[in-house]
Amino acid sequence: MLNVLFIGDVIGQPGCEFLRERLPQLKKQYQVDIAIVNGENSAVGNGILPGSADYLLDSGADVVTSGNHVFKRWEISDYLEEHPQVIRPANYPSCCPGNGYYLYDGGSYQFCVINLLGNVFMEPIENPFYKLDFILKTVKANYYFVDFHAEATGEKKALAYYVDGRVSGFVGTHTHVQTADEQILPGGTGFISDAGMTGPKESVLGINPQNVIHRYLTHMPTRFEVQNIPCQLNGVLMQIVKKTGKCNKIQRINLI
User: Could you tell me the sign of the dihedral formed by the alpha carbons of 81, 145, 252, 30, in that order?
Assistant: First the structure.
């Protein structure tokens, strides 16, 4: 069996520090073979920076995925080229820095982690269905795992069913709210609509509630703050059968 741990969007410095505190024990407890962490909001002030990416990798992440905020900080551009284990969504134009997938070498197997952006209620971008088809046909690996960074639950579920049986695991990110719909699809793909987030528990999607309330009341630009208060860690653990690549077990992780 392969034990795959995925951790939902890490928010700011508090989220990074809480991940570092909890991830080593999680990996030991569940005998994790590969740990994947979404880090697109890991930098102070949103986005991802070389320093926050390094922090996640040093904390035990084997692969770092991202999303629509990956290019908010220009400093990450060269880093993505130099650190292939930190990936950006594959359906960005090919001229963008970095790559949309990473082949993790497990010794006796190749584990391909793929990152994609949704189209529904997001900025227009290449169709994720066609892009995922292309990657699965051209990139050779023993196992495939998708982080689909998307807004609409329906789009996440549709793409998961589209590749059911072709990928071992399919995890949604972006909404920062862990869903309770984890399941194994008929073809053997482990699925959850959203893994949730790792960051301040008493928050609005990781942000100081007062900042968000002020924005809704005034419609004025508001500085969003990530408070240094007790955190939560959301994620999902999947057990993959080595011989078949099918998901045998899926469970949510929710720590405070």
Answer: negative
DSSP-derived secondary structure letter, 171: E
Tokens (6 digits) for 87: 């990936």
Q: Give me the mean pLDDT over the 112-118 stretch.
A: 98
Residue 135 · residue 101 · CB < 8 Å: yes
Neighbouring residues of 28: CB distance < 8 A, sequence distance ≥ 6 = none
Q: Which of 69, 149, 174, 176 is catalytic?
A: 69
Q: Give the dihedral sign, CA 212/217/223/228.
A: negative
Closest by CA position to 199, among listed 165, 220, 230, 154: 230
Residue 223 pLDDT grade (very low, low, confident, very high; cuts 50, 70, 90): confident
Catalytic: 69? yes
- For 119-176, what is each residue's pLDDT tens digit? 999 989 999 999 999 999 999 999 999 999 999 999 999 999 999 999 999 999 999 9
SS3 216: helix
Residue with tokens 């793409």: 159
Q: Are 100 and 88 in contact (CB under 8 A)?
A: yes
CA–CA distance, 185 with 162 (Å, rounded to integer): 11
3-state secondary structure of 119: coil
Predicted TM-score of the model (pTM): 0.96
Contact call for residues 214 and 227 (beta carbons, < 8 A): no
